[in-house]
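Please, structure for the following, as tokens.
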Amino acid sequence: MSNYQVLARKWRPQTFTDLVGQDHIAGTLVNAIRSGRVGHAYLFVGTRGIGKTTSARIFAKALNCEAMTAEGNPCLACQNCLEIGSGASMDVIEIDGASNNSVDDIRRIRDNVVYAPTRCRFKIYIIDEVHMLSTQAWNALLKTLEEPPAHVKFLFATTEAHKVLPTIISRCQRFDLKRISQKAISERLGDICKAEKVVVETAALNAVARAANGGMRDALSILDQLIAFRSGSASIGEADVLEVFGLTSQAELLQVLAAMLNSDAQELLFRLDRLSREAKNLDQLYSDLVGIARSLLIVACSPRNAAAILEVDGSEFELISRLAGQADAGVVQRLADGLLNHESKLKSALNKRATLELTLLRVMRDAQAVQLDEVLRRLARLRQSGSDPVLEAEVGAPQRQRIALDLPEAPAYPAAEQKKNLI
């Protein structure tokens, strides 16, 4: 049996330079070490898998490194770095706040902080999921946290900072880690695939990055599963990602939105039926539709800055721009607003397919409805021109040109299947 190590552990960042998308954290910590302005307590806040505990570990190594590099990174070669990296250091203690949250657990920490480190410069306590500590446990640590011995540093990590007592936060330097952009995740995954000698298409990497929702650890776990799924294959494509995780391609999402912008209920229901038959994750599908609608709105409202704002590659941005160029900006805005307003409905629905169909039909109808301000403007123009004979025709909804994306059309159902659907 091979001692295989999952990618999320194998490629866990070991230096500040390796941290993806957290330059503001890395720069501040490096400058603090160089200037000798290192605080006694730090709180790392952010969603899962974006580098909270990893940042704490790198910081612990840098504080105790015997030969820090010119860039401010730990050398990873001295005995302290090796022991901390392997979890064998007696001076860097990692604690899980979820399972060590009692007063007795914290009292043990409080009693041990008085002892000097055995080898390192600092004795460091890294407490993960620190929001799980009880109020009594925090109160037991409060005085020690405010005035710890000079050789002790506390590094906390949490996904729910609002659950941490304000009296604790006020005694820490707080660092909020950013959600990692899709582009940064995709580029990092590309570098890892090259090192692992795995061929993965760019479109597949983009799909993985989109599914990871800003978390590098999630992205690496997805990539690991894909490599196992396509073991022995020449390469991994976007279709593999979509099949394994029930995701929807950008092209299919744009086709759904194009049908809604065209107010084509028949086309919309056909697209949704096809995606449902392919066992797509409908919750994720709706969330992705919200994201695409947002992208369309940004391109429509700010075409010059849209490329810098959106987290998509060149080919995807071209398709979004093409659709936005054909759509009415007001309709796009009402479409995005309607999708956002009904997002919670799908999450709590028992029949998700029916709820999705009815919700999208309603959002489409409301977005395409004639707006009162538009009718009033037309009435004002008609009164000024005195063209009452054409009043009824002019007040009606304007006829817009049908939107066409020039994407490959989905194959029609076989005749036998169509007949079965009608029964």
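The CA atoms of residues 255 and 405 lie 8 Å apart. Confidence is low (pLDDT under 50) at residues 410-423.
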